[in-house]
Batch of 3 targets.
Target 1
Amino acid sequence: MVPVARFGDLTIPEVATDFGITDESVPRWMRQADIDDIVASAEQSELVRLRWERQLLEMQNEILRRAAVFFASSTLSK
């Protein structure tokens, strides 16, 4: 219903009639859809950030593993 109302070819009362809901429901649903879009966008941004941070942590762990192997081997050879 929201995409139909957003498309703009029909008025809000026409959309409401087509979907069998009240005229007041259409703007309320559209506001909620706007909020949901914002939340989804924020969640997507957070997901991208968290994936980047995970990749950075994995690289740091690999560096630490290699450093531990290097120092362990240099200690054993003495």
Note: The first helix runs from residue 2 to 7.
Target 2
Amino acid sequence: MLTFEQLHARVEGAASGLAAEGFTTGDVLSIHMANHPDFFTAMLAAIKLGGTVSPSNPVYTARELRHQITDSGATYALTSAELLPVVSEATRDTAVDKVYVLGSNAAWLDHLAQGTATAMVNPKTHLAVLPYSSGTTGLPKGVMLSHYNITSNICQYSDCPELNTWSADCRVLGVLPFFHIYGMVIVGMCPLYRGIPVVTMSKFEPVAFLTALQDHKITRAYVVPPIVLFMTKHPMVNDYNLSKGGVSAGPVV
């Protein structure tokens, strides 16, 4: 559990640590992991230093990941212990010479901030995030998003009168994948912008999902159609009290 103050300190520390590792303006950080609070710690730290983040699908094979890593020009990579074998194989003989593992050698995530300077970039042209398409018509392609693209999208959604129903008691469930732009911006960044807590789930699992909705009094959940069908048809849903949070589904992906 992280407070907003702790997250800010963690981002500052991660930026300081990354800078000490040589990460600088123009470098690309590959993030290959399931949903985790430190996805945003690493993302914001890299962007703060003028770098670019290229998040990838955690179910990728090494061959699929290798394409994104080489195409994006990544030189640093962050992953989790369970996905390290895939990342190690994917980064072999590439420009990536530093692979960090959460809870292991990613000590820069806990680095003490030393007044890390923010890189001076042009927010309208500087590349902040480089997610990849699904590749339905060929190999996945990088989608070049500037700082301005991301912040504009946050403002479009967060400040739209028809959607601006955020309140102090809002709770968002982060079950959609953060590597996808929908999960990254709408599920993750928008609540951060509005000061709304996000309960992070690494993947959908029925009992854990329903327990999170009930125990954390989730008020807004962004889900895919199969989860909607599960919620409307599975009898186990009746075993949980989902009324306290007043759950309302966000736009369905």
Note: The domain at 160-249 is CATH 3.40.50.980 (Rossmann fold).
Target 3
Amino acid sequence: MIPPGAPSGSLHAPETPGGQAVRPAARRAVPRRAGAVLQMVLFTVVALSFGRLHELIPGAATLPIGKILLPLGFLALLSQPNFARRFRVLRTKQARMFGLLIAAMVVSIPFSLYRSGSLEDLTDFLRGTASLVILVALACASEADLYGVARTMVAAGGALGLAVIAGAGEVIQGRAEAGTTYDPNDMALVGVVVLPMAIWMLRDKSRLWRWVGAACAVGALATVLLSASRGGALGLAAIVIAMAVQYWKRVSMAGKVVAAATLVGGLLAAPQTFWKRVGTLEDPNADYNTTSDLGRLALWKRGLGYFASRPLTGVGLGQFGAAEGAWLEQSRGATVFKWSAAHSIWIQVLAETGILGIIGFLGLYLPTFRDVRRLRARATGRAPPDESLHGLGIALGISIIGFFVAGTFLADAYSPPAMMLAAVAMSYSYLVRQRTLPARAVRRPPNASGFTQRKVVR
């Protein structure tokens, strides 16, 4: 009812029979609209930063998309009614280890072989990659948000592979690559990370997303094969074995036949370059990577030497190449030479940021396996608390295994696939913690009737 004396059309909330005002529906819709805006910005920035699809469009590769979308994402995050509660994700083990990794980067700068270069790399990392990780972690406050990010990663990575199949990008020396960010090895890493999550989507409740998952699984497989990356091939083998172990008893015979046919069909259709490069793994001693001073094996040995000489600080963030240049100048007296990358995530982090860096880096991923076991233990004797959450954890763990194996041969420790996995792992750990923490009672002051109130929280 309208209070006496109120002008016609005034915006007063209607009253219930008990006299309490009811909040208008329009006001309740404000948080929903704010959440929708956040999701739209979040999914867009994830798709473009992970899939790099805009780089396939002429003239769009140089657009400052990150400089526009990241601030928009944080503005949308600030508009959320539960903004302060979202910072609880920073209490996870992964988030603390991310802080340790950044601290190791900072510590390495004063002792860097090239201080201004390390400082520039740190600034770029904090402004771009680290901001993206924090945005994704804070924005995934619910399982629906996390599923949305995972689906977006699958759709973007799978679309990259499907675009390559359709003829987008370039083929250089028999190896496909797309855009300016990803070379063939990077593309293979994207495919390795995406494939287990695409398989997870095959059990989605929505038929549309199941079809998207199937198409993106084909695209991810094609990305690895068409790139002809040996590290990608080893990563693919690792995730195929891991998926066989995890899903063998859960998948019907028809599903096993379809999966095997898809894999065999993809291998038969792989280009000759793929088989030629993979064939070199049969006789490692015939490959320059094991015989040359500039091959991977020699690089890794020197990288361990750089770490041994500076175990606490490393040679400086992004300065493995500078260390290589100094070695070549001293050992060969060369003035023109190649400043080689570490060609391994482990050597890259260890040599550049020291022991604290490698501890922080491992801490981004290894706790995920504990989180999956915790969720499974919570469900002992009954169905998991959420089949999709449990399934996503298994897929995330397999993606991490593939990343570890493929990344052993790639200097991609801070690449979009690596950091997106870290962001998803943070959010997953937070949501598992909310699911598995025992409820506790919090005492409140007595109410008007004199009785003590209790609120159950997690």
Note: The longest strand covers residues 440-443.
